[in-house]
Write a structure and sequence with these properties.
The chain contains 5 helices and 22 strands. The chain is α+β, with helices and mostly antiparallel strands and 397 residues long. The strands form 4 sheets. Strands 2-11-15-13-12-16 form a 6-stranded antiparallel β-barrel. Helix 2 (97-144) packs antiparallel against helix 3.
């Protein structure tokens, strides 16, 4: 009887120890797994862009004047040479009491100046006539030898001077007449007075056929010379401008393939890079960081019938195909982690993991190319946590 109780006691203690030991045994870690495959791989750069009309023509005012209201609307079609609006001369300013009194005084002053010039003409004419008579008298005396030749020469010189003074006085009369007419015109024409004289107008025409893209000034107003009035262009001749960071712009070449998605259609549009502008510009990001961006211009390759509903400054999402290849050995990029100045992954061998160093090639946003270190069909751990290590037991999540 005593030895039976002893056996039962030892058996009970053994069960207790086994339960406690099992409780302290390390449990397999739940992880996510992926299989190494060979498939098509594209390295894509995604960014936003917007469409724009290739050739835009800004119609501006050639001179300062009074612009009539433009009857056209945005989207209206125009032909080359079609009159868009007309430009009138600036109206004369309205004369108040003080300005009118000054204008009347200027008219009186111009009349007096004209009278002075006319009197001066009479005085210079009398001098010229006397000088001419004196020359004739001295010529007769000189022929008879009563007057020296030098005296006659001096008289002839005085006659020429008096004739020049006479012509100058006559020109002064004409100048005074013009000044009087100008003073009378300033008094006669005023914006407060109605004039029956028709106003000469300058027609503003469309330089090319197209559609109205923008109206900078539609209502009638006084405009200055060179002021922009209307933008005209062909909305069916579109290109896409895309802003990219300068380090990414270095990776893009003219002729590179680009896809446009989320533009409103069912399928993405094909495009091709035409030009990469050589000058970058600074732009503040949404986080307040200064970024150097480069403008890339791309053309549509897809048939125009597909994207004809697009217009000027429509938003699109551009995907630049930087590199692509078929039958590329690849794994999810989130399976990689840094190890000894390189890259490594955890592979699954039965219920444990082993660390393998790998050589990474091209990388897209979610997938990475494996050049060395893995084979097709191997299973790798994705999103490895700090608990995952060499020889650790795992299980699929």
């Amino acid at each position: 009887m005593p030895w039976r109780r002893t056996i039962k006691l030892f058996l009970f203690l053994f069960i207790i120890v086994a339960i406690i030991g099992y409780g302290f045994m390390p449990k397999p870690i739940a992880v996510d797994m992926a299989t190494v495959t060979r498939d098509h791989l594209q390295v894509i750069l995604e960014t936003e862009g917007k469409t724009r009309v290739i050739d835009r023509f800004v119609v501006s005012s050639p001179i300062a004047g009074f612009l009539q209201r433009i009857p056209l609307k945005v989207g209206d079609s125009v032909k080359a040479g079609q009159v868009i609006t007309q430009l009138e001369p600036l109206p004369a300013r309205t004369l108040d009491s003080r300005s009118r009194a000054q204008a009347e005084a200027q008219v009186s002053s111009a009349q007096a100046a004209l009278q002075v010039a006319q009197e001066n003409v009479q005085a210079t004419a009398a001098d010229a006539d006397y000088a001419a008579l004196e020359v004739q008298r001295l010529k007769r005396l000189q022929q008879s030898g009563s007057v020296a030749k030098d005296t006659l020469d001096q008289a002839q010189a005085r006659a020429r001077r008096t004739q020049a003074s006479r012509r100058s006085a006559e020109f002064a009369v004409k100048v005074a007449q013009f000044e009087l007419e100008a003073a009378r015109t300033a008094l006669r024409y005023s914006a407060a007075e109605d004039s029956s004289v028709p106003i000469e107008k300058l027609a503003i025409t469309a330089p090319v056929p197209g559609q109205i893209l923008q109206l900078q000034q539609q209502s009638e107003a006084v405009v200055s010379a060179g002021q922009a009035l209307v933008e005209i262009g062909d909305p069916h001749a579109l290109e896409v401008e895309i802003e990219v960071l300068s380090p990414n712009a270095v990776r893009i070449k003219p002729g590179s393939r680009v896809l446009f998605e989320r533009w409103g259609g069912d399928a993405p549009l094909e495009g091709q890079v035409r030009r990469i502008e050589p000058v970058a510009f600074t732009k503040i990001s949404a986080l307040g960081v200064e970024e150097q961006r480069v403008l890339i211009i791309a053309d549509f390759v897809s048939a125009p019938e597909i994207w004809q509903r697009l217009g000027d400054r429509y938003r699109v999402e551009a995907q630049f195909i930087l590199w692509e290849g078929n039958e590329v050995l690849q794994i999810p990029a989130n399976a990689l982690f840094r190890y000894e100045n390189g890259w490594a992954v955890f592979t699954v061998v039965e219920d444990t993991v082993q660390r393998h160093r790998v050589k990474v090639g091209h990388r897209s946003g979610l997938v990475a190319e494996i050049v060395e270190g893995l084979k097709v069909g191997e299973i790798v751990v994705t999103h490895p946590s700090d608990e995952v290590g060499e020889g650790v037991r795992i299980r699929r999540r």
